[in-house]
Fold this sequence. Notes:
The chain is of the alpha+beta class. The chain has helices spanning about 1-25, 135-145, and strands at about 35, 40-45, 55, 60-65, 70-75, 95-100, 105-110, 110-120, 125, 135. The protein folds into two domains: about 1-75, no CATH class; about 85-155, no CATH class. It is elongated and about 50 Å long.
Amino acid sequence: MQQSRILQKLCFFVTICILVPNVLGDCNECQTNGVKCINQTHFSFCSDYIDKSQVVGCPEGQVCTSMKAICLPEGAEASCAPTPAVECPACDGSSIFVCTSRTTFQMCNGDTLTSQVSKCKENTFCSIKSGTICADRCWIENNHNGFECDRESPA
Length: 155
């Protein structure tokens, strides 16, 4: 009788361990709701009929989920872990330009940021490390491991 209960609890534990990863979404993976959460507050569509480089932000105070509503109030289980504080590169005299958001860059005058904000063309993102200043999303994901400055707009 005791062995039967232990076996029953073990089966329950194994089932939970198998199901939990399938319930919790992963960053940058298409989910059953038709989107992939890029970070805790932004997503892109998985449809072949929608530009996959288009990034959509959840409304203020909401997180990206695998639920049908996509964005739910903070406190709901987000598909991605919280992103650490954004540390964008600063002018330090070693680079002519720095990324100031996902799609903008600015020129450096030594260790001072100039006031002119320049934008990457549509469907490209700031990537000074690419050697072209702006690069497509595939290059960034495959060669750089993410954005150099993952802000929506310059600070």
